[in-house]
Amino acid sequence: MKKCFKGSISDDGTLLKVQMDPAGIYLATSCSDKSICIFDYESGECVATLFGHSGSSTLLHVSFLPLPPVSFLPPPPVSFLPPPP
């Protein structure tokens, strides 16, 4: 299967480097327009963009860390009663 990615969301710059996450879900690109973009591999949609670098972003390595789901529910009540005999 072949896919075509622009590499950047702007019209300026040249694609410098590409890295796929180990699960094959996301693709990280660095461009000469000083941006790093994270793309969803299936849809081709840019899901995150990093700006503000002083030089060209020569992306060397990206770590894609799987994060566990977060629960914002309060913890269950704690009983301080002694256990029954």
From TrEMBL:
SUPFAM superfamilies hit by this protein: WD40 repeat-like
Gene Ontology CC: mitotic spindle
InterPro entries in UniProt: WD40/YVTN_repeat-like_dom_sf (IPR015943), WD40_repeat_dom_sf (IPR036322), WDR62 (IPR052779)
Gene3D superfamilies membership: YVTN repeat-like/Quinoprotein amine dehydrogenase
Name of the protein in question: Anaphase-promoting complex subunit 4 WD40 domain-containing protein
Example of a GO biological process term: centriole replication
